[in-house]
Amino acid sequence: MEITTVDLDAPPQLWARWVAQAAALATIGYRDVYWIDGAGAHHDDHGGNYARLTLIDGDRAVLFGYDHEYSRTVDHSPPIDLLAGAPEWLPWADLTSAANLDRLGYVYWYDKAWHRVAYPHDLGDDGLLATVREVIDDEQALLALGEIVFEWGRHGPADSVRERASVNAAADRLLAAAYARAVDETVLWNLLGRISAVQPDPRAGVAAAAQGGGTPGSAAPFVPAAPARPVRRRVRALSDEQHQQLVWTAMRQAHELDRPDETTYPASPELTALIHWARGRAPRGDGRCSALFQLEIDGSSEQPGEFPPATREGENSWSAYREASDLVRALWTAENAGGRGRWLFVRLETSADDFRVERRWDSWPEWWEYDGITGPWLDQLNAEMTRRSPQWRPDWAVLLDTEVAWSGPPDRYAHLLD
After folding, report:
1. pLDDT digits (tens, 9 = 90+) for 135-174
2. Cα(406)–Cα(412) distance, rounded to whole angstroms?
3. Farthest-apart Cα atoms in the chain, separation
4. Mean of pLDDT values over 392-401
5. What is the tally of helices (H) and strands (E) in the chain?
6. pLDDT tier at 265, thresholds 50, 70, 90
7. Which end of the chain is more exposed for a tag (fewer CB within 10 A), N or C?
8. In Å, how far are 199, 269, 308 from 266, measured between CA atoms?
9. Which of 73, 34, 407, 6 is nearest to 211 (CA)?
10. Which one-letter DSSP state was computed for residue 308?
11. What is the DSSP secondary structure assignment for residue 113, as one 8-state letter?
12. C-alpha to C-alpha distance for 384 and 342, rounded to whole angstroms
């Protein structure tokens, strides 16, 4: 994997801004958003996103994190190994633990300059700015300190223009103190003492700054360099998209299991209601209608057949789909065969005096259009197959195991990746 150099401020600058954010937030009672401990400087937005900057012996550092909206590295297809070619001195246990949980969106390491693996040109964002914007440069750090006063502290002055100028000046003094490792109660009070919605506690802010070496006599924590890379580590073989496509391809090539008792069903009340609905929606008014459905626990999809259901005057297509979806789900529930499972697809064709229903439990039918984008989702298929008795699970169900995304498919399915 190619390694590239990245233009980011040096670790001491990022660290000082982190100290300033941590001290300001701790002063008004927020000790778990930006903070520093023996493992490094942390950011957690409590929305599933995080960042961490760790200083490492030898004037080195690592910056890593994840944002569930912006870290496109995690779901990129094919997978990106963010640790390929990374140096041996990184905190590998923390990094591989995050990667194994699909919560490693970026990794930047510093050794005289910042480096990371090169990204594909189509990647977009890795989540860095979304998770460390408040410390990425002085301008953003000062804006964030102002937000701590006005947003976090709910400060609403009568003269906002003059007060904002005062806050900007006080924020600048706090940031300068963090750079000088001279954060004290006075500089924190000058910025945050004006808040009345909460009771500021500058001593808590000083304690937070001291954790990062931001006060006189304190020291920033450094962690020892790791002696070597892991001998083995898990690396994704397939992206989520590739894993999904693999399962769908296997389903399209599969055949139905032998189900002699389920080739026909009596016309149950649920089936009768669906037939009545289809005939009433015949596009030519002659009872001929065709509708195709794919069902799963949390949703359903519909495709038109040769004679797709007609919408009524004044009715939108969503209303017609919702009506059909409710009827099909009632049928799906009524025909639940317990350990034998529930069908995945169904096709209904009606005429004025006849009907035909075709169900598929174990395969992707040729009459269900494949667009490579939509279909039964992995988690839904997994839930269905887990409910079934082992003998009623098609062979491709082995591909639903999450480990397949990491180790690849069994040999008999490897050709489907070509």
Report:
1. 999 999 999 999 999 999 999 886 789 999 999 999 999 9
2. 17
3. 91
4. 98
5. 12, 12
6. low
7. C
8. 72, 9, 24
9. 34
10. P
11. S
12. 7
CATH 3.30.500 domain residues, the chain: 255-393
Distance CA 298, CA 304 (A): 21
Question: Is residue 271 within 8 Å of residue 331, measured between CB atoms?
Answer: yes
Per the listing, tokens 């009345």 go with: 196
- First-to-last C-alpha distance (Å) of the chain: 22
Residues of the chain with pLDDT > 90, as a percent, come to 89
Closest CA to 123 of 195, 179, 72: 72
User: Quick one: pLDDT band at residue 260, thresholds 50, 70, 90?
Assistant: confident
φ, ψ for residue 340 (rounded to 5)? -80, -15
Show the CA angle centred on residue 148, arms to residues 147 and 153, nearest 5°: 110
- Per-residue pLDDT at 264: 64
The one-letter code for the residue type at 190 is N
CA–CA dist 179, 10 (Å, integer): 13
- pLDDT higher than threshold 90 for residue 312: no
Query: pTM of the predicted model, to two decimals?
Result: 0.85
In CATH terms, the fold of domain 255-393 is 3.30.500
> Shortest CA distance to 40 belongs to which of 29, 30, 51, 48?
51
